[in-house]
Amino acid sequence: MLYSFALSCKLKAAAGSLQSRFCPRFARAASQTKYLPVICSSFKSTAVRHWSNIPFITVPLSRTHGKSFVHRSELKHAKRIVVKLGSAVVTRGDECGLALGRLASIVEQVSVLQNQGREMMIVTSGAVAFGKQRLRHEILLSQSVRQALHSGQNQLKEMSVPVLEARACAAAGQSGLMALYEAMFTQYSICAAQILVTNLDFHDDQKRRNLNSTLHELLRMNIVPIINTNDAVVPPPEPNSDLQGVNVISIKDNDSLAARLAVEMKADLLIALSDVEGLYDLPPESDDAKLIDIFYPGDQQSITFGTKSRVGIGGMEAKVKSALWALQGGTSVVIANGTDPKVTGHVITDIVEGKKVGTFFSEVKPAGPTVEQQAEMARSGGRTLSSLLPQQRAEIICQLADLLTDQREDILAANKKDLEVAISGGRLSQPLLKRLSLSPSKLNSLSIGLRQIAVSSQDSVGRVIRRTRIANNLELEQITVPIGVLLVIFESRPDCLPQVSALAIASGNALLLKGGKEASNTNRILHRLTQEALSIHGVKDAVQLVSTREEVEDLCRLNQLIDLIIPRGSSHLVRDIQRAAKGIPVLGHSEGVCHVYIDQEASIEKVIKIIRDSKCEYPAACNAMETLLVHRDLLRSPLFDQIIDMLRVERVKIHAGPKFASYLTFSPSEVKSLRTEYGDLECCIEVVDSMQDAIDHIHKYGSSHTDVIVTENEETAEYFLQHLDSACVFWNSSSRFSDGYRFGLGAEVGISTARIHARGPVGLEGLLTTKWVLRGDGHTVADFSEQGSMKYLHENIAVTHRTSS
After folding, report:
1. Over the stretch 231-264, which tens digit does the pLDDT of each residue have?
2. SS3 state of residue 468
3. What positions does the domain Aldehyde dehydrogenase occupy (predicted)?
4. What distance in Å separates the CA atoms of residue 471 and residue 792, rounded to the nearest whole number?
5. Can you say how many angstroms the Cα of residue 789 is from the centroid of all Cα atoms in its chain?
6. What is the DSSP string of 653-701?
């Protein structure tokens, strides 16, 4: 009775101390806790298995399926998940108290997954840190009271806190830690239960069966089990010098405990959160350390482990061995960072969604290189490519042009397979099927375009743009250089692959290509031909096709490997990439809301031809007309009637803008948004009062892509061309001319509506940047000071040589 009363009082006191520093509603829920069941059980130890030179205790496996997930994308199917929280995740930086904000975020994510119907279990540290905080507070309070009573002056002497024994801290912290967990989970209408185990109990087979039965019953009742080693009764740990003589309980047992628990319970996934991003090939603090995305059994010999964790003594090596043991038992494992404030709020849910977070352990090693390895291969090949002579790069492009015609039958056969799969699946619209389809004429046009690129590549890389004489014998040059590694993501457009490859080769850039799976057969053969052409000068690796199951969002996070992302596809794809890109610039446009404005002085013949071509020739193109602006004086004219008749004959669905609808008694369906890109035989018609009104409308609702004026008034046209701020502005010509091939660029990597670097159709020039080269003769800045002997000249030197000397 006295013990129960004391426990209740301690929990209420703990909840009261949380109220001011965490959240009142959590504290209220904790203060209502009357009894926390503690269940002690264990696993059984058997033979010793050696993953490397360090033995690891194993247990018999009762798992029937025994197969872990092969790829991250399969993790979304995980039903039973164990989340292991290391001491560094749960505790504060001073190791005295809990990181409440981090813990709350983790509980929220676990609750979200639990409420999705998954079965969540937590293996947690933190009792020692929480108990240390409480005991220090009690000791300081006790010392202050004693000194106040024994000091006649009521002056307190300098107080010191003795070294706290770790088991006592654990005993004082277990109840408060559990009260905190229960208070947090209560906010999501989830019940939690505590289970304590010890290493000394691992030999008892009956207790092991009891634990299994208890956990299954808790999961059946939708309760989250919270498991920890019973650190209050374990043998004394070794002192840890990193903690200045303060002993802490080893978290190595929690690593092995999480692995044992995951295998015993046939968990689908074990998430081990620590204070590092994942597993590195070298100690993380090393300059050359690289995060390992996927780790396979047998790779541990290539890993150099660093020092052990400052909090706890398990270290990354213990985590790896635990992870490999769980993997062998059929449980997938991810080691990730649970302390980074940028990702803590979604790290667990991101892992379950299959995103590239931390290190994923897999038993199945893919046949080809990883995307990271491909990017490194491409960068190395790209540097060699950029050092070739311009004639050599041109020869590669011409060879590719020849292969497109020589291997025409094989290309069309592969494309036919893709079309058959797409048609039978019924997932692609007619415009997308048209983009997917290749024909002999398309291949001939591609070949011609590639030869144009080959000619222009003769004077691209290393071209001197500016030359300045800074001072006598000190000359500065600005020259063109490749951007680096380009990632081009395209969908349903296999003809994009040779175009972009040729532009990358001409500009000396390395290239990563990620095509849509609907064109996988066509992309594969086109990439093979591209590498065949590159091989004539030994730079085959410069262009890589990403064929692994990489999510686009994961590719956009490779900011250390990729210099520029170029999306080619729907506005939805482009917007997703722009949102997902982490520190990598994206060149492109999210929408192609192109306008054609019909002025009151327009020619009837030109109007009909331009509108038909702009809208009907290829409605799925990003440079197709989406909004037709008509001067109000033309509304009841024969010209307007002819426009409507032509659109009806071409089966174009018309949506009325607000102003246009107000003129009509019976109008077509009113447009939902004036910013719509239809991508099909649909368009919006709107009325404007003047040419200036048309400009204002385009600036407000357009996407700065391509806009057209049709008029016979040259002054009106020139005003429109000069004052409209779009990437492409045309007079009396179709919007469909907005294209790299039609501009004479040979091809394009896309059309950019950005304000810097490149705008409009981006060809060879848009894939180059510059660097500055300074040639001196022992010059120093001090030479140009007031006391120096030299003066700045800053003379422009005529660029007589097109390439850098």
Report:
1. 777 665 444 333 333 333 233 457 888 888 899 8
2. strand
3. 370-635
4. 5
5. 54
6. EEEE-HHHHHH-SS-SPBPS-TT----SSEEEEEEESSHHHHHHHHHHH
